């Protein structure tokens, strides 16, 4: 058992950062990822026939260096290029579909300085992964069950995409997954304590009930009209809109939906896309009617992110933090991920902080 690796489940930012810290200590580890890509909820996408327009973020977009020291330090350490989120200009406030949007100028300093990544947040994911040996990250590996025998030996049932299955042994397991995914998709023998199951299911997965639309244009034409690209809307379908333009060249606007996951499903993706373009045209004029591309990602339909309970709209910011005691699974199971961070839960900073805490706990137990 002492020669078994630490196995990390999930190749999102938290899982990758945990692996990088373990690797730096000379500790053998393996990441098992169910998807065919790394990044988890980080998803930066280029337009297939127009790569020069840049990569657009369909997951997290920003970080706030003045308030988030861990990610700020990591960005500096990795030498990643960043640029400040565009907020210059008037904000639009849309009260109803029947009335024109109102322009408002925010006071100087009203918006906290946020930063974005050249090449999208995927550049952060790729940079962390590049520091790991190729053999550490194993894609298309879905963990279906975790067992602990009477001697305390831990093993995992792993299903390969189209390649059968295998059983692996681990010294310890880091679950770098949304807590609800752990409770819903993995069987534990012996079972997890009831209070831990309750703690897992009570933590909504950040953004799991949301979708994100990004309209891409040849240039950010709204800036010439003195607009920031920011919109607050009660008319929808997008409730919150921001300038998503890359650092140079093209323009882009992205928005979060006021429509619930169930409403989006009933309307269908094609109709949702039509409504988004119509709203952008109403807000920003005829130039917004013909985007080069409209990227769309509904995270509520992503089974590696969302469970049924996540379709229920959130009314308040979730209370995140460490999970309940694992009982007999203590020193075998460790939980990482932004939903387990007591500070900055839901943010990239929370994902990194949870990885640091988890790795420290693993080191205390075994090394």
TrEMBL record:
<dbReference type="Pfam" id="PF01593">
    <property type="entry name" value="Amino_oxidase"/>
</dbReference>
<dbReference type="InterPro" id="IPR002937">
    <property type="entry name" value="Amino_oxidase"/>
</dbReference>
<dbReference type="InterPro" id="IPR036188">
    <property type="entry name" value="FAD/NAD-bd_sf"/>
</dbReference>
<dbReference type="InterPro" id="IPR050703">
    <property type="entry name" value="Flavin_MAO"/>
</dbReference>
<comment type="similarity">
    <text>Belongs to the flavin monoamine oxidase family.</text>
</comment>
<feature type="domain" description="Amine oxidase">
    <location>
        <begin position="112"/>
        <end position="363"/>
    </location>
</feature>
<dbReference type="Pfam" id="PF13450">
    <property type="entry name" value="NAD_binding_8"/>
</dbReference>
<protein>
    <submittedName>
        <fullName>FAD-dependent oxidoreductase</fullName>
    </submittedName>
</protein>
């Amino acid at each position: 058992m002492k020669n078994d690796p630490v196995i990390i489940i999930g190749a999102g930012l938290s899982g990758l950062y945990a692996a990088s810290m373990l690797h730096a200590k000379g500790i053998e580890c393996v990441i098992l990822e169910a998807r065919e890509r790394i990044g988890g909820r980080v998803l930066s996408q280029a337009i297939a026939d127009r790569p020069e327009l840049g990569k657009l973020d369909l997951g997290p977009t920003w970080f706030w260096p003045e308030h988030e020291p861990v990610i700020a330090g990591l960005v500096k350490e990795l030498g990643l290029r960043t640029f400040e989120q565009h907020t210059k200009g008037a904000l639009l406030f849309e009260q109803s579909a029947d009335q024109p949007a109102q322009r408002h100028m925010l006071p100087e300093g009203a918006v906290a300085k946020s930063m974005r990544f050249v090449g999208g947040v995927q550049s952060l994911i790729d940079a962390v992964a590049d520091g790991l040996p190729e053999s550490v990250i194993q894609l298309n590996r879905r963990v279906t069950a975790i067992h602990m025998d009477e001697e305390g030996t831990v093993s995992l049932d792993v299903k390969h995409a189209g390649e059968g299955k295998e059983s692996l042994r681990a010294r310890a397991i880091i679950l770098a997954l949304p807590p609800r995914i752990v409770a819903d998709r993995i069987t534990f023998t012996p079972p997890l304590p009831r209070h831990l199951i309750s703690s897992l299911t009570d933590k909504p997965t950040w953004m799991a009930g949301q979708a994100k639309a990004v309209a891409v244009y040849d240039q950010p034409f709204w800036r010439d009209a003195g607009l920031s690209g920011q919109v607050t809307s009660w008319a929808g379908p997008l409730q919150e809109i921001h300038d998503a333009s890359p650092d140079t060249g093209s323009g882009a606007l992205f928005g979060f939906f006021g429509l619930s996951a169930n409403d989006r499903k009933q309307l269908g993706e094609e109709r949702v896309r039509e409504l988004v373009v119509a709203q952008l045209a109403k807000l920003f004029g005829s130039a917004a009617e013909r985007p080069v591309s409209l990227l769309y990602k509904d995270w509520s339909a992503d089974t590696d992110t969302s469970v049924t309970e996540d379709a229920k709209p959130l009314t308040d910011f979730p209370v995140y933090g460490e999970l309940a005691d694992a009982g007999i699974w203590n020193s075998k199971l460790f939980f990482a991920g932004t939903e387990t961070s007591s500070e900055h839960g839901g943010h990239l900073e929370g994902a990194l902080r949870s990885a640091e805490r988890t790795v420290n706990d693993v080191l205390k137990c075994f090394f």
